[in-house]
């Protein structure tokens, strides 16, 4: 994160059993969520997104996939006979 110049955000202590550990608002997995979601919203297919993200399991990959409202609205707008939704 430091090398990429990305702030990790606020630190927080998470109690795990008897020992606590420090986590941050943003970390490596935040970047993976953003990467996969950006690819998703640019209409890149799942197989290619999984390959680029290093995911072999579709269920795991789905956790990192977040659709923007405008992407969902555009998908509905492609259906014939429905009202066009603008995001």
Please characterize this protein's 3D structure.
43% of the residues lie in helices and 14% in strands. It is α+β, with helices and mostly antiparallel strands and 87 residues long. The protein has a domain at 28-87. Strands 1-2 form a two-stranded antiparallel ribbon. A hairpin with a 2-residue loop joins strand 1 and strand 2. Helix 1 (28-41) runs antiparallel to helix 2 (46-53). The longest helix has 14 residues, at 28-41. It is elongated and about 60 Å long. The two termini are 32 Å apart. 2% of the residues are buried.
SSE run: EEHHHH
Q: Spans of 5+ residues with little confidence (pLDDT < 50)?
A: none
Largest sheet: 2 strands, antiparallel
Computed CA radius of gyration, to the nearest angstrom: 18 Å
- The shape is elongated
Strand order in space, largest sheet: 1-2
Give the averaged pLDDT, no decimals.
83
Number of strands: 2
Short key terms for the protein model shown above:
43% helix; 14% strand; two-stranded antiparallel ribbon; alpha+beta
Question: What topology does this entry show?
Answer:
Layout: E1 11-16, E2 19-24, H1 28-41, H2 46-53, H3 58-63, H4 69-77
Antiparallel strand pairs: 1-2
